[in-house]
């Protein structure tokens, strides 16, 4: 038992509700790729979560397989990480039910992401409301030590910890308390069109750079990105959120320190910096896009990866669910 709680385990996931973008990469996937070397890694494509907003079935199927291609092309290694579909492991929804019986409606009503979606005009559906409980189930099933996510998911991971504490208190020690991890820079990449909002696949495509975007599109999107007043390439997220965001993207894609980037672009202007940034992003994405294209031409290989991942995930998930059912008194 003790060794299990000490084992390093990672769980995190992305929704196939659109195209994976560089915000997803910098805020989350990049960390998964680094940590798969030292952690037992579970990275579901959370397809059931995608259904919390209306999806066209044929398009959703395409997005699911494209997300699997993105995962692998971005560096997740199926030999090290279990890559699988959430819907292929029924324990996720089964544990969700148990956690639903411990979740207070008041806690769900406080979820900022839910409130924002309603303000944006999304329908107040029960699935959208209880979506953090399904996320808690995704996480707790694998008893992870770390959950690397973007900043927008902080409150959901907090709820997960609350539910783990509640369960442990009532039924005895079961779930280790997971810790969320954020990258040092880039936990919230901002929309290219509106730096008061995070980059999001549910907003206009000009506002994000998809992993699969062509060089032309990348140049165009960066060129038309909103900038702040002035012309200095200075990282100051409070007074210059837009240019700071572009500098953070440059940092994430080039590995150059932010101070160094400021120095390198001291005597230039936004236009020159944007052109340089576009080339850095294009260069970095090129081999990823080639791999992605190749994977999508061999879909059976992706399906095999997902099946193998689901098998690994299922072994762990069924063990946890059995333990949970027994502790709560189910036969
Ligand atoms: P949407 O924005 O459409 O609601 P999403 O991109 O937030 O979707 P996911 O694909 O599930 O949803 O996100 C995968 C991971 O990427 C999560 O850990 C999330 O926190 C992170 N992430 C998403 N957007 C950003 C962003 N703009 N900056 C940093 N991390 C992000
Ligand atoms: N809610 C997250 C996606 C998500 C997730 C998870 C992230 C679902 N289950 C488990 C980390 C761990 C989102 O909207 N980005």
Q: Mind explaining what this structure looks like?
A:
The chain is mainly alpha-helical and 331 residues long. The chain folds into two domains: 4-181 and 299-328, Rossmann fold (3-Layer(aba) Sandwich), CATH 3.40.50; 205-293, Orthogonal Bundle (Tyrosyl-Transfer RNA Synthetase). Helices cover 55% and strands 6% of the residues. The chain has 15 helices and five strands. It has helices spanning 2-6, 22-35, 47-50, 57-73, 91-100, 105-109, 112-119, 126-129, 131-140, 154-171, 215-223, 241-254, 258-264, 270-297, 299-328, and strands at residues 9-11, 40-45, 81-85, 146-148, 179-181. A three-stranded parallel β-sheet has the order 1-2-3. The chain has a two-stranded parallel ribbon with strand order 4-5. Helix 10 links the parallel strand 4 (146-148) and strand 5. Helix 5 (91-100) runs parallel beside helix 15 (299-328) and helix 9 packs across helix 10. The protein is globular, with a radius of gyration of 20 Å. The two termini are 23 Å apart. The model has no long low-confidence stretch (mean pLDDT 96). The site of L-tryptophanamide has 13 residues, from helix 9.
